[in-house]
Amino acid sequence: MVRDAKYWVDEPVPETPAPSEYPAPWKKTKIVGTRMPRLDGYERVSGTAVYPSDIVLPSMLYGAVLRCPHAYARVTELDVSAAEKMPGVMAFLTPSSPEAKDIQWPFFRGSEPVPILSRTCKYEGEPIAAVAAETPQQAADALKKVVVKYEVLPSVPDHTAALEAGAPAVHDTGNQAGEASTYERGDISAGFAEADVVLERTYRTEYEIQAPMELHGCVAQWDGNKLTVWESLQGVFSIQEQYARVLGLPLSNVRVVSTFMGGGFGSKLTTSRSSILATLLAKKTARPVKLFVSREEAMLVTGNRPGLDARLKAGVKKDGTLTAFEFDGISSGGSYSEGGTGLNDWLVKDLYTCANVKCVDVFVHINAGPVRPFRAPGHPQGAWVLEQMMDDLAEAIGMDPVELRIKNVPTVSQARGGQPYTSTGLKQCLQEGSEAFGWASARKTDNDNRHLKRGAGVGACTWVAGGGGPPATIVVKLFADGSVNLNMGASDIGTGTRTVMAMVVAEELGVDPAKISIENADTRSTQWASSSGGSKTVPTESPAVREAAYNVKKQLLEMAAEEHELDAGDLTIEDGTVVSLVDPASKFPVTELRGLKRRRVVMGVGYRGPNPEGKTVNPFAAQFCEVEVNTRTGEVKVVRFVAAHDSGRILNRLTFDNQVFGGVTMGIGYALTEQRVLDSNQTGKMVNANFHDYKIPTALDVPAEIPSVVIDPNDTECNTTGTKGCGEPVTIPTAAAVANAVYDAIGVRITKGPITPDKILDALKTQRKGA
Ligand code: MOS
Question: 123-155 in b/e burial notation, b at 16+ Cβ within 10 A?
Fold first, then answer.
C-alpha cells in the first residue's frame, strides 16, 4: 500500500462532502498565472508581521530545557534544589515533578510512548529537566546550577555499525527499526540476463539538517483549562490534536495559532517535547511561557534527513531499454522516528519504465536525534543513487543521458500497479529544459589544458505525494463594500500560500486581490485544513478556495439576474462589476445589488473534492546544471542552473520561481557542503551543531539566476485548478545533477556526498595513478 500524501503525520482523514457542482476548468485567466508579489510582503520585510517567536505577552516567562550532553546515558543523579533558588526562577520540572511525571510523548513512531522528561537518554539533546524564569538569561543560568550526573553508555552513531553483532543496543527490541521495506516486480534475474550492460555501484548520502530560519518553539498561555499556543508550525490542526492528546484536553479547549511562521521543510509538521514542556511550565506558574530552542538545540533534536548507504545494480540494453534494477539501502531515523523515513527506493521503483525491480530499504536505530520529514523524504537520497546510475548506464551504451531518460519516461505509476498519471510532463521537462539550458553545447565544452574544468549534468524526478486531495474546507465572505475575506486553515510556511489563494479568489470572483483580507492557520477562527507538507497545499487548498469563491459568485449572479430580469448563466463578474456576456451594456456594480445591501455579507463555502478515482496525480521535473571544478583546490562552483518543472498549472509565477530558487539552493547545499558530523570514534556527539561548521549555501554559493521552465500539461483531470504542487520536487534531483556535472567535468564520479574538495582531490589522485 502506498502511503502517498499521508506519510508525514498521523492525521485522520475526515471526509468532506464533494462539491455538488464543480466549476469548469479555467480557460483564459487574468490574475492566476501572473507574477504577483506577496500581499503580505510589506509586513514580512518591515518586521510588522508577528511570527510566533515575536510574541511577547504581559508577565510572560522564558522556558529552557536541560538536555543530555551525551549520545547515550542514564541520569544517575538530578538535583535542582540550588538551581531553584537562582534569581528569577519561577518553576522547575524534572522527571519526578507532579506536573510532568505522568505526561508522555507518544509521537515516536514504532516506539512505546516515552516520559516527556527522560532518565535514560538515547540521543544527544534529549530533555531531562525544564525551567521557567523571568528572563532567558536567568533560565540559562539556572540550568547551569542543576546538579546532574550521568552514567555514559556506549553509543552507536553509524547506521551500518548499528547492525553489526555486539553493537550497543539503542532499544531492547534490537537496532533494526521494524521490518525492512521490500518491493518486487517482474523477475530481476531474467532482467539482468537480457541486459547488454549490467552495472553495480554503491552510494552514500549524509545526514542533513532542515535548519529553517525561525527556530522551533512556542508561547503557551492558559486561561483556566483552555490552552492557547502560538507555535511555529506547518499545520495548526494536526498540532491541536497532538496537544489535546498529550495533555488530555478536548480539542475545543486547545487553540493553536501560526499565522506567520519562518520555515519548516518538514521539521514543523509535529510539535516538540520542549513545546509540551512550555505548556506544563505555564500551567505550573499560571503565567505565559515562551520556549524556543536555540540553533544548536535545533540541530540536535528537531529532525534531519537520514543519510543513506545504498547499492544499486542496473541492467540496460544497447537501445536504452532498462531491464532490471536491484536496490538495497540502509538508513537511520535516529534513536526514534518522528516520521520521514522510507521512500529511499521510490524513484528506483517509479521514475523510469522498467519491468523488473527489487528493492530492500532497511532502517536502523542509532544514538542520534529523531528524524522528522525533510523536504521530499527519501527522494533526494534516491535521486542521488538512481540519477548517477542513469548517467553511467548512458555512458556504457554510448547514449546521451537526456536521451536515455526520455526513452524511459513512464505514463503510468508502475509502483502503484500501473495506475495512469493524470498527466506526465517529464518528457517535456527533459526536452524543453535541455533546450533552455543549451545541453548539447554545454556537454561539448573543451576542457583541455585548463585546471578549471567545466561540465554539464542532468537530473530528473517525480514526487510521490504531490497532487493533494481532500479534505479542505474554505469560507469566503464578500462584504457590502465589495471587500472580501478568505478564511483558510492552512499555514503559509513561507511559500506564499496566502497570496496564491487570494489570487484564486480574485480570479474567480472578479475582485481586486488588494481587497482581499486573509485569516489563516488559527484553530479558533479558521476551518480544518491538513498540514502544509507534501507539496500539496496548492493542489489541496486551491480547488476548495475556488469552489468557495465560485459559490459567492453564484449567489451574486442570481441576485443580479433577479433584480435585472436577466439569465444568471449570461452573467459574470469583472472588477467588482456584474457584466452580461450577451449585452456588454448591462453592467451593475456588485455593491449596488439590492440583495447584497439587504444581507450585508454573502458567504460561500468550498470543499475539496476527491482526486480522480484510479489515477495518480504527481509532479515531475528535470534539472540541468553546469559546474566548474578547480582541479588544484578541489572546489566545485555551480555556474549555471536551469530547472524545468511540471507542477501542473502555475498560480503565481513569482512565488513558483521563488520555490525553484530556494529548492535548488537547498539541493546545492546537499550536493556540496551540508552534513551532520557525529564523532563516530569517541563520543558520538554532533561536532558541527552550528551555522559556522554546518555549511548552508548563501547567495554567493549559487548562480545569481536560476531560470525556471514551466511545463504545464494543462491537466484538467487532477482537480479544478489544474495544479499538482511544487516545493519538494525542486530539491529532489539537484544534488544528482551536480554530481553528474562534476563527472562530466573531471571524469571521476563522486558517489559519496557531499562533494567536498578533499573528495575531489582524492578522486583525481586515484585517477592519475590509474592512468
Ligand atoms: Mo514536507 S517534508 O512534507 O514539509
Answer: bbbbbbbbbbbbebebbebbbebbebebeebeb
Residue in 4, 375, 536 to alter for ligand 1 test, most ligand atoms within 8 A of Cβ = 375
Confidence of residue 23 (pLDDT cuts 50, 70, 90): confident
The answer on pLDDT for 73 being more than 70 is yes
pLDDT value for 14: 52
Mean pLDDT of 735-742: 98
Using one digit for the tens of pLDDT, what is the confidence trace for 4-14? 444 444 455 55
Q: How far is the CA of 732 from the centre of ligand 1 (A)?
A: 12
**Where do the H-state alpha helices sit in 80-135?**
81-84
> Is the CB of 203 within 6 Å of ligand 1?
no
pLDDT in tens, 694-725: 999 999 999 999 999 999 999 999 999 999 99
Whether the CB of 159 sits within 6 Å of ligand 1: no
Q: Is 507 a catalytic residue?
A: no
Q: DSSP letters of 240-299?
A: HHHHHHHHT--GGGEEEE-SS----TTTTSS--HHHHHHHHHHHHHTS-EEEE--HHHHH
Number of the ligand 1 atom closest to the C-alpha atom of 532: 4
C-alpha cell at 573: 463578474
Cell of 384: 542521488
Which one has a higher pLDDT value, 4 or 118?
118
Output the CA 539–ligand 1 centroid distance in Å. 15
Kindly give the distance from the C-alpha atom of residue 701 to the centroid of ligand 1, in angstroms, as a whole number. 24
SS3 556: helix
